[in-house]
Structures are given as structure tokens and as C-alpha cells.
Amino acid sequence: MTNLDNVRITARELDQLTGLDIGDVTMGWAYRQTAFAPAVRLSFITEQLLSLGVACIFCLPVTLLVARAASDNSTQTVWIWMPFGVLLAIALTLTWTCYRWREGKRLITLSHLLDDIDRFNETVSAVEILEELGAAKSSRLNLDNREEVLEALHLTRESLVCGLMTEKVMRRHQQFIARRQEMFSSIERNLATLQLLQVSDEAGEYSRLLNEAIQIGTSVHQELSGDL
Amino acid sequence: MNQDTLKPRSKKGSLNHFTVLIRLLRDRKLFLDEVRSETKLNRKISSLLLASSCFFAIYGGIVGAYGGGLQIISSAIKLPALYLLTLLICVPTLYFFDILFGSKLNFKQYVTMALTSVSVISVLLFSFAPVVLFFLISIRDYNFFLLLNVLVMSLTGCIGVRLFYKGMVDMAGPNGFETKLRLKLLQSWVVLYGLVGSQLGWTLRPFVGADQRLFELFRPEIEGNFYSQVFRSIRTLMGF
Asked: Fewest Cβ atoms closer than 10 Å to its Cβ: which of A93, A122, B20, B185?
């Protein structure tokens, strides 16, 4: 019987690989797609109500105290301002939820990867249970191709970890990637300048260096064009 | 193969918020280590905020039950507001003064630490709830009930603030408070926290709701302060 803990992708590993605080339904402050699944709808609604309650705790007394101070301690004005306090709390909760939802949309790739990791961890648990059942002599359940299954799990784990690392790099440099048109035109402009310089200066060491620079520039351009 | 094992595991959602608080109570040292290493601070902040709000609201509701009716709802909102707004008012002071005198912690860590203290207070208040409820049912005396709550809140507040102070000293490490000034600053902040809290409590009153008075969101009399009222209540209770 083998302990498959080293195959499982742990919560700590997830945090380190993504650079975010990963929860069952959250990635940092952002919502994962699992947050809107029908199975967790009740807990999502409960959480929204709790958030609204906390918003009320902050907004209502502050609004009423400000109204009281502004109206020279008039009880009537304080009561009039109460709906505004509630509305402010609702607006605050909605804004906060929308922000988290939008952040979740932005991190949709990560969200899908995390769902895959959840499924992977569940598969590992299933294999573990099967192995335990197999260890019991009376059991007819057993893994016939154990080595292959373990290898497949290791390979899947590697792919998932690789996927998380790639996603993190892409996320960190999202702004840079978003400016790829600008980047391409800049590279092309520089290449054109280099080629112009080559024409004007054909001979000598300087020309050789220039040729190398053009080759590097061209290969970078090709690599980037191929990747994106 | 049993297909049940392949089903997605159940997502506990909002229950997780209370798990964070239980973890804090069970293993404070590990919790502080995680705060120091900035592990899952976002979740800690949101969970402690939600869980402590719930506990404060329950205790507030019980306190308001003396006045009954709308006072229950009012106190259930005002008691968490008292603790959390005090925190909101005081944390920036601690953060900016502390970083000025050499702290390496970030704002999220300060907020988490402060929420840790408030959460401990909320759990302690919640644990006193049956006692307060018992006295509420058995003795109908406004001054006694008021002083009982002042006593419970003072006791829990002292424990919570003491844990916060110890936690901050632990977080800073053995050489963290090499300048006496920084330690004095933390002590002064604790006093400031108490003063702001008591004054905000006075501003937000009533929490209990006096006998023979209609429900009021806030008391019309702004003058006076928390300490003079406590002194007056003691005198009345003693029969002076």
C-alpha cells in the first residue's frame, strides 16, 4: 500500500504556485467558478447575507451618527436617514460582490485549472481508497495496472503544476502581453533601423556585430509571432 | 469502483469562516506564525470579520432583550459596530506610528492582528451569553444589568487586548522592540483603543434600553461620558 500524499497537490503548494490565497470557492478575493455552482448556492447566498449584515454594521450606525450630528440631534432626521444607511450597505455589498465576480472572470483560466486540480486530488483519493480495499484480502476490488495509474497520476500532476506556473507568469505579465501590438511594431522598427545600418556599413567588426544583432532580433520576432 | 469517491467534495462555504476562528482559539501560536508569514491573510480577515460580527450580534441581541422589541435589533447592530468601528478608527494610528518606528509588518498583518483580538473578545462575550441571559431572566434591575454588562465587556476586553499586545510583541520577534519607544507606543495604543471604544459606546448608547423609556435609536443627551455613567450606576445600585 502506498501513501499518495506526495502526488496530491496540497493547499500550500497551490498558494505558492499561484501566488494567491486559494480557497474552495475563492482565489484571493476573486470568486472561482465553483462559487456559482448549484451545489454551493445556499452557502453563497448565506455568505452574501452575512456580508450585507457586516456592511449594515458599518454603514447604518455611521450614517445615523452623521445625520444626528448634522441635524443638531434631531430624532426625526435620524429616522429619515435610516433607509439611506441600508441602501448604502446594499450598494457596498453589491459593489464588493461585483468586484469579486469581475476579478474571477479575469482569472477564468486559473479557475478552470483549479477545478482540474480538485478533480485530480479526488482521483488520487479514489486510488488511495481502492488500494486500501485491495489490501483487504476478502475484497475483490483491486488495481490491475497500478504502475501505469501511478505514472499517469504523476504525469497529470506535472502538467497541472506546469499549467499553474505558466498561468502565473502570464498573469504577472498580462499588461506586457496586452501591449503585444506595440511590442511587435517596436521590434519591426528596430529591425528596419538595423538593416538600414547594415547597408550603410558593410565591412569590418561593426558589421559582424550588427549581423548578429539582426539575427537575434529576427529570431526573437519569429518566436514571439509563433507563441502569440 | 465506488462512484461516490469521484464526486466533488462538499464546499462548506460560510461555515469555513467559523473554522478559521476555531483554529485561532485552538492553536494561537500557529495562527500567529501564519500571520507573520502572510499566509492566507485575505481569508483570515474576511472570516474573522464575519465570525466576530455574528458573535457580537448575538450578544448584542441578548443585551437588547432587556429593553425588548426594536432594542434587540438595534443592539444586535450597534454592539458589533462598537467593536469594529473602534478598530477601524484606531488601526491606522497604530500602523503609521509603528512603521515610523521601525516595524516591518504590513497593513494587512496589522488588520489581521487587530481582528484576532476583536474575535477573541467576541467569542468570550458569546461564552458569557448564557450567564447574562440567566441574570436577564432572574433579576429585573436596570443598573445591575448595566453594570453586569460593563463588567463582562471590561473583562473580555482586557483579555482580548492583552492577547493582542502579547501577539504583537511575539510577531515583532526578540529584537523587534529594541527601542523602548515602540513598546511604549503599543501600550499607549492599547489605552487609546480603550478610550475610543468607551466613548463610541457612549455615543452609540442605549444598548440595554432603560425601564419606562420608549425605544430610542440614540439617547438625545450627548453630554456626559461613559465613566461618569458607570459611577452613577454604582452609586444608585449601592443606594447612595
From this structure: A122
What's the average model confidence in pLDDT over B63-74? 90
Instruction: Tell me the nearest-neighbour CA distance from B194 into chain A, angstroms.
Output: 19
Please list every residue in chain B whose beta carbon sits closer than 8 Å to the beta carbon of residue A44: 13
- Judging contacts by C-beta atoms under 8 Å, the chain B residues touching residue A29 are 42
Q: Which of these ranges, A37-41, A217-221, B96-100, B140-144, has the smallest mean pLDDT? A: A217-221
Averaged confidence pLDDT in chain A: 80
Q: What is the CA radius of gyration of chain B?
A: 20
Residues (pLDDT < 50) of chain A are: 1
Secondary structure (DSSP) of chain B? --GGGGSPPPP-TTHHHHHHHHHHHH-HHHHHHHHHTTTTHHHHHHHHHHHHHHHHHHHHHHHHTTT-THHHHHHHHHHHHHHHHHHHHHHHHHHHHHHHTT----HHHHHHHHHHHHHHHHHHHHHHHHHHHHHHHH---HHHHHHHHHHHHHHHHHHHHHHHHHHHHHHH-TTTT-SHHHHHHHHHHHHHHHHHHHHHHHHH--SS--TT----SS-S---S-HHHHHHHHHHHHHT-
Q: How far is CA B36 from the centre of its chain?
A: 22
- Per-residue pLDDT, B215: 84
pLDDT at B2 > cutoff 60:
no
Q: How far B184 CA sits from the closest chain A CA (Å)?
A: 30
8 Å CB contact between A78 and A68: yes
